[in-house]
Amino acid sequence: MVSETSFSSYNRSPTPKFCNSFTTRIFSDVAGDVTIVVDGDSFLLHKFPLVSRSGKIRKMVADAKDSNISKLELLNLPGGPQTFELAMKFCYGMNFEITCANVARLRCAAEYLEMTESYREENLIERTEIYLNEVVVQSLEKSVEVLSTCEMLPPIAEEVGIPSRCVEAIAMNACKEQLVSGLSRLECDSESTELRSGCLEWWVEDLSVLRIDFYQRVICAMGRMGVRPDSIVGSLVHYAQASLKGIGKCQIWNPARTRPTSGLVENDQKAIVETLVSLMPTEKSSSIPMNFLFGMLRMAIMVDATIACKLELERRIALRLEVVLLDDLLIPSVQTGDSLFDVDTVHRILVNFLQRIEEEENEDCGYESECLGSPSHGSMLKVGQLIDAYLAEIAPDPYLSLQKFIATIEILPDYARVIDDGLYRAIDIYLKAHSMLTDNECKKLCKFIDCQKLSQEACNHAAQNDRLPVQMAVRVLYFEQLRLKDALSGSSGDGFLSQRISSGVPSAAMSPRDNYASLRRENRELKLEVSRMRVRLSELEKEQTFMKQGMIDKAGNGKTFLTSLSKGIGRIGIFSGPAGGKRHKNGRKSRGADGKTGRSRRHSVS
Questions:
Q1: What is the pLDDT of residue 476?
Q2: SS3 at position 38
Q3: Long-range CB contacts (within 8 A, 24+) of 331-339
Q4: Are 437 and 408 in contact (CB under 8 A)?
Q5: Are the C-beta atoms of residues 140 and 206 closer than 8 Å to each other?
Q6: What percent of the chain has pLDDT over 90?
Q7: Which end of the chain has less Cβ packing within 10 Å, N or C?
């Protein structure tokens, strides 16, 4: 048994001196008989306690030609001299604590030294295995801590299965926490977003300390065991923010300033970006924050990630492009001599978005759909406004070529824009910043503006804009005259048509499917309006007849009883046929005899 005095002296002394002092204090009458060198550090020890527990040292001593060998060297011992010290303490029977920080190194060193049960019961391998099974794998935090210590260990750690056991333990404990916290999740759903995020993925910070290859294994295991996709997304976001520079920031940074100076660091960040993208959940129900996707895309461009990685990010962004903010699209270009913004990336995102819209329209019901304005059409209108604002932002760039600017304009269909004011503003800014354009180039650019879709304010500005071609100004004035003419004649025109025009949604702003459904509905409403006009016309004719007869009666002596009587007979004559006394009498007799017949006859004539 070792006293506390000798133990504290051991801790204070350097390694070689410690061994001399250590053996002298415990075995004062027995000198050390073997020196073991580990990574340049020498340990003066005794053969007997070592060979009784370590099969490797026993074999080295037995294989030595000189029976009086006094020096041995251990090469590539896992954990180095510090771990060897702990192993020797175990051989000498000294008490020490096995912790999460040293258990992986001790387990690997015990495997290297062959400290199995064949040489002594409850040897170091058995003791470390008990700690791993009864303490480490039962806790998510301890499993993460032990797994992080395996990063610096040689492949022998994989041979004894420490990383794989820790990975499975982390995933299993995460699933248990997910089940236990189900009630807490329901309670947090009614609370604020901050509280809800705080009561859910509490373990995401622990995983951020892992190396990317271990982290990948943990996330894959979580996916297999059924951890929620939103929990995995939260972990991915936190890991990226902890491991990458600039992630989660929307502002534009200088690529030259933030590009890693070390090639090793850049390769590490490239591996992190590509791995995190591959780990993103594929479930449609998982909502990945857009600022995280754009941050990952910017980092992928900066570190020159694989094409597949960048295309996957662009595809995911295109799935929800209608909710993207303008600042997200302002991706800086890292290529020298190119435009300030990465227009090609935005163009590819738009291509993916249009493919998505086409697929959604093919999945929906055909042209017989009665809904006005499908969800895909609404998304198209939002993206049209977003791209017009994006064009206005990149237009002042002096290095932006006309071809890229036009390609970004013409990729969207005509019905993506309700009005062309935003497009006109972007083109005007581009013309102002690129005054060296030829007349043909100006005409080629301005042909994308639909003068019929310009507001009154935009038309007034365009009519006085010297930067526009003359033909453009003439078209603006022509359509302005047509609009003024329609406005003046609108009071006597079709009320339904004027109402449709004033709604601010011209047919050019609709997709072909929605436009067809709208035309069918308008046709039905027009037919109904015509029927109503016919009924109204018939009523007006009746009223006009009564008014004429009243004017004739007022011209005579309408104050007498006979005049009043003749007036009543005259009204009957309007519905009975030509005026005649005999005929009037017959008519009155007919109504007196059978009132129903008279009413039905009158109704049939009218």
A1: 84
A2: strand
A3: 331/294, 331/297, 331/298, 331/301, 332/252, 332/253, 332/254, 332/255, 332/298, 333/255, 334/255, 334/259, 334/301, 334/302, 337/399, 338/399, 339/394, 339/397, 339/399, 339/400, 339/401, 339/404
A4: no
A5: yes
A6: 46
A7: N
Task: Flag whether pLDDT at 143 surpasses 90.
Answer: yes
Q: Which residues of 468-493 are buried (b: 16+ CB within 10 A; e: fewer)?
A: bbeebbebbeebbeebeeeeeeeeee
Query: What is the spatial distance between Cα 592 and Cα 582, in angstroms, rounded to a whole number?
Result: 15
Tokens linked to 1 = 């048994």
Q: Which of 41, 125, 139 is nearest to 81 (CA)?
A: 41
Mean pLDDT of 163-171: 96
DSSP letter, residue 133: I
The single residue listed with the structure tokens 């069918």 is: 520
Check residue 98 and give its pLDDT: 95
pLDDT at 254: 43
Q: Locate tokens 């824009």: which residue? A: 417
Q: Which has the minimum average pLDDT: 268-272, 362-366, 396-400, 429-433? A: 362-366
DSSP state of 490: T
Both tokens assigned to 21: 């002092």
Give 480's pLDDT tier (boundaries 50, 70, 90): confident
Q: What is the pLDDT of residues 191-216, one digit of tens each?
A: 444 444 444 567 888 899 999 999 99
pTM for the whole structure: 0.72
- Give Cα separations from 286 to 283, 318, 418 (angstroms): 6, 15, 32
Q: Give the number of other CB atoms < 10 A from CB of residue 240.
A: 20
At residue 509, the pLDDT reads 53
**Length of the chain as a residue count:** 606
Structure tokens at 139: 């806790």
Give dist(CA 62, CA 357) in Å, integer.
77
Mean pLDDT of 273-278: 96
Q: Which two tokens stand for residue 271?
A: 């591996």
Q: Is the pLDDT of residue 189 over 70?
A: no
What letter would DSSP give residue 510?
S
Q: Which two tokens stand for residue 399?
A: 């290095």
Contact between residue 454 and residue 504 where contact means Cβ atoms under 8 Å apart: no
Amino acid letter for position 13: S
Of the chain, the percentage scoring pLDDT greater than 70 comes to: 68
Output the CA angle 485-488-494, nearest 5 degrees.
Answer: 95
What is the Cα–Cα distance from 527 to 522, expressed in whole angstroms? 9
3-state helix, strand, coil in the chain (%, to 5): 65, 5, 30
Among 110-124, 180-194, 383-397, 563-577, the minimum mean pLDDT is found in 563-577
Report the distance separating Cα 138 and Cα 132, nearest Å.
Answer: 9
Residue 170's Cβ-count burial label (10 Å; 0-12, 13-18, 19+) is: buried
pLDDT the model gives residue 11: 34
Half-sphere exposure of 587 (CA within 13 A, CB side): 20
How far is 12 from 8, CA to CA, in rounded Å?
6
Cα–Cα distance measured from residue 514 to residue 379, given in angstroms and rounded to the nearest whole number: 14
Q: What is 47-68 written as a DSSP string?
A: HHHHHTT-HHHHHHHHH-SSTT
- Cα 428 vs. chain centroid, distance in angstroms? 33
Distance CA 80, CA 83 (A): 6
- Separation between Cα atoms, residue 448 and residue 412, nearest integer Å: 11
